[in-house]
Amino acid sequence: MPMLKVLLSAAGFLLFILLCSEEFRKYLLHYWRRALASSRGKYWAYPVAAALALAAAGLMLFALWSLVTATFSYD
Known about the structure:
This protein is mostly helical. The chain has one domain. The chain has three helices and no strands. It has helices spanning 2-20, 22-37, 41-68. Helix 1 packs across helix 3 (41-68). The chain is elongated and about 55 Å long. The two termini are 20 Å apart.
């Protein structure tokens, strides 16, 4: 279980760093516009974007929560 917490925290921090970079946001915007331009993409773009946004928010909140509640021992 501790390894899972470390992996989720690392994923949250990496996702936060990626979302702060301008190139990654341009990349996401490019694929968002491409999905909306296709005929099938109009139906699945919003639900997929909402699911990804919730997952990203959950990972980032978990990373912040684990950072705040971390207890360090020097044994």
